[in-house]
Amino acid sequence: MIAEVSAVIGGSAGAHALIGRQRFMTPLRVLLLLAVVFLSFGWFAKAGCIQQAPNGPDGALGLDWSGSRQYVAMCYSDTVPLYGAERLDEGAFPYKKSWEEVATDGAVQVRYMEYPVLSGLYQYGSMVVAKMWNSAPWLPQALPVVIYFDVVVIGLALAWLVTVWATAISAGRRIWDAALVAGSPLVIVHGFTNFDALATAFAACGILAWGRKRPVLAGVLLGLGGATKLYPLLLLGPLLVLCWRAGKMREWGTTACATLAAWLAVNLPIALLYPSGWYEFFRLNSARGADPDSIYNVVTSFTGWKGFDGTLYPGDKPLFLNAITLVLFVVVCVAIAYVTMNAPTRPRLAQLGFLVVAGFLLTNKVWSPQYSLWLVPLAVLALPHRRLLLAWMAIDAAVWFPRMYYYLGVADKGVPEQWFTSAVVVRDLAVIGLCALVVRQIYRPSEDLVRRGGVDDPVGGVLDGAPDVHRGTPMPHRSKAPVPTV
Fold first, then answer.
1. Which of 75, 91, 286, 483 is within CB 3.0–4.6 Å of 49 for a Cys-Cys bond?
2. What end-to-end distance do the CA atoms of the chain give, in Å?
3. Quick one: which of 122, 118, 123 has its CA closest to 224?
4. What is the 3-state secondary structure (H, E, C) of the chain?
5. Shortest CA distance to 420 belongs to which of 301, 242, 282, 259?
6. CB 391 within 8 A of CB 184
7. Percent helix, strand and coil across the chain, each rounded to 5?
8. Angle between helix 319-342 and 236-246 (nearest 10)
9. Can you say whether the dihedral through the CA atoms of 89, 92, 95, 97 is positive or negative?
10. DSSP 466
11. Would you say 156 and 65 are in contact if contact means Cβ atoms under 8 Å apart?
């Protein structure tokens, strides 16, 4: 499919192509146009949940979620219910506004905005724009939550376009690989489910900045990404091990300091002014149990296992589950570090970034469906085998259907939980399979499509072509063609 699309403007980019600098239809512009088409599909997929009906008091207009429309039409988006749940409809400033929720045992919990600072401020800014729109009588009017949703979507769409742009530039001569970012099935299903496109934009631009040998800018972008969703901070781990092997710890230190400075610049003012509101994100993630998509809930679903902490009551924290997930992720990170130090050729940044983020999702107690977007740009740069990636993305996107009908409930003609958790198992196996292929190509670099033609690492930055300073004992491997150690 991608080859045929590229043929419209002359085929694959050659060695002397000026990517993105011609006047008319360049590969980059084709990719951005493709992304706009798929983002439009994503909006239509969610549009069912912003339909209006005269179902309010005295026939006032309200959202038409009758008959569990959000599940039957599979159009659910966190953006819509959060408008009221986070008190944005009241014009409240996140982290300052609090409210009370009564648990099933009668205990009262004081609640605040539950998102990291930049995500919360993005929601607040979108609310302000939506209210300004509603206050202008000459503009087309709708329910405030509908206007708010559309404002949020415009910003998220722009963020995903930035993600596509940064990934395409990072791909270098393999620019058409980024078509799988632009036209991913996951964009249709989850592009507007939550606010994760903001984080993917920061992470993709951070990787691009590192590849352009700008460690300070890379750190700032990763820090801002970490203030949106924490996953961009995970990329510091692969950079640390790669820089240690190449003897580039000064550059890593620069990036790490810039990351910390950017994260503090965003978080510190909110933490000082509204400490309880700022801490809510961390409190909630510590207190929540295993997510329906997690491997722990899958085991519970099929075996009836009560979990590491047994039966939890409202207010209890899953202490053992928290510890187990942390230990498992640390084990994964140690294994990745071992592979990095003992591989015959230093791995590429995108390969390790994909392994770390995938390992985090597989071992974590929470895998919200939109988190899969985190893997898309990294997978395209790490393992540019288009049929394999498209198969995984299709499987991952398809999990949304049994999820929605599981939430609908068997009594309302939904599906049993095991239908949903079986789909989760298939998705997890697909991700594990991709990880195995990445590790295989790390140990057999001659099979890595990106390295063909003497390329080392297009986003390696100061690591690209650098000799090794620290290195473990290389593992023996068989390769069709020898690749010189860099």
1. 75
2. 35
3. 118
4. CHHHHHHCCCCCCCCCCCCCCCCCCCHHHHHHHHHHHHHHHHHHHHHHHHCEECCCHHHCCEECCCCCHHHHCCCCCCHHHHHHHCCHHHCCCCCCCCEEEECCCCCEEEECCCCCHHHHHHHHHHHHHHHHHHCCCCCCCCCHHHHHHHHHHHHHHHHHHHHHHHHHHHHHHHHHHHHHHHCCHHHHHHCCCCCHHHHHHHHHHHHHHHHCCCHHHHHHHHHHHHCCCCHHHHHHHHHHHHHHHHCCHHHHHHHHHHHHHHHHHHHHHHHHHCHHHHHHHHHHHHHCCCCCCCHHHHHHHHHCCCCCCCCCCCCCCCHHHHHHHHHHHHHHHHHHHHHHHHCCCCCCHHHHHHHHHHHHHHHCCCCCHHHHHHHHHHHHHHCCCHHHHHHHHHHHHHCHHHHHHHHHCHHHCCCCHHHHHHHHHHHHHHHHHHHHHHHHHHHCHHHCHHHCCCCCCCCCHHHCCCCCCCCCCCCCCCCCCCCCCC
5. 301
6. no
7. 65, 0, 35
8. 30
9. negative
10. P
11. no
CA distance 260 to 268: 11
Element (H, E) at 109: strand 108-111
> Residue 268 is encoded by which pair of tokens?
């510190």
Q: In this structure, which amino acid lies at residue 180?
A: L
Token readout for 317 is: 């924290």
Tally the residues of the chain: 486
